[in-house]
Amino acid sequence: QVQLVQSGAEVKKPGASVKVSCKASGYTFTGYYMNWVRQAPGQGLEWLGIINPSGGSTTYAQKFQGRVTMTRDTSTSTVYMELSSLRSEDTAVYYCARENPHSDAFDIWGQGTMVTVSS
Amino acid sequence: QSALTQPASVSGSPGQSITISCTGTSSDVGGYNYVSWYQQHPGKAPKLMIYEVSNRPSGVSNRFSGSNSGNTASLTISGLQAEDESDYYCSSYTSSSTRVFGTGTKVTVL
């Protein structure tokens, strides 16, 4: 079945970087864009950016420009999101979400990865 | 890009209908038919309920419907049920080729 499986929880110190993975299965990896969305504790959803697994092109939210990098490995059907210069406000659950290129809707979501930034 | 504006909370009794609004600008909600809605239960990943303003994915109850007018999109839940108690978020494509979410609405079934 179609699913996205994310890497496990991370604890990082302020100033460090974190890299979260999202492995896709059950569909043609290069046929759908992948987004990253985060949710701080008790807060709403926030969009970080999108990657086209076919060519690797990316678009990032202006807020995260310069701090976020999204990459993909087509040989393993995996996308990665790396966030640098972490601060306490980056503590959140990070989700990958598949986007249907025809509807711009996030139809399949990963289970989420908790990233905690604490000294 | 500012978040789309949703009411913080909406409530209704079982069987009633409720509507959640999602207000943006002509650069997002008002400019494209790419508005989607998501349901999120506590501790769970969001679930797609409506895409392209008014389309339901397979498996989503027809009690959920969407519409838009100008810069405001709406999600209506008819025949409200206890299981509909959840958080709901809208999302839109934007003129910068980015995506933006709404502020979120907590639906309470009285």
Give short descriptive properties of this protein.
A: 119 residues, mainly beta, 53% strand, globular, B: 110 residues, six-stranded mixed β-sheet, 0% helix
Give a written overview of the molecule.
The complex is a heterodimer of chains A (119) and B (110). Chain A has no helices and 11 strands. By secondary structure, chain A is mainly β. Chain B has 110 residues and is an all-beta fold. Helix content of chain B is 0%, strand content 44%. In chain B, a hairpin with a 6-residue loop joins strand 3 and strand 4. At the A-B interface, strand 5, strand 9 and strand 10 of A face strand 3, strand 7 and strand 8 of B.
General shape of chain A: globular
Radius of gyration of chain B: 13 Å
Estimate percent helicity of chain B.
under 10%
Give the tally of β-strands of chain B.
9
The oligomeric state of the chains shown is heterodimer
Question: Largest interface, by Cβ-Cβ below 8 angstroms: which chains and how many residues each?
Answer: A-B, 23 and 27 residues
Can you tell me the residue ranges of chain A where pLDDT is under 50 for at least 5 consecutive residues?
A: none
Radius of gyration of chain A: 14 Å
Largest sheet of chain A: 7 strands, mixed
* Class of secondary structure makeup of chain A: mainly beta
Sheet of most strands of chain B: 6 strands, mixed
> What structural class is derived from the secondary structure elements of chain B?
mainly beta
> How much helix, percentage-wise, in residues of chain A?
under 10%
Our measurement of the CA-to-CA distance between the termini of chain B, rounded to an integer number of angstroms, reads 35 Å
Secondary structure tally, helices of chain B: 0
Q: Judging from the principal axes of the Cα atoms, what is the shape of chain B?
A: globular
Compute the number of strand runs of chain A. 11
Give the count of helical stretches of chain A.
0
Helix and strand run of chain A:
EEEEEEEEEEE
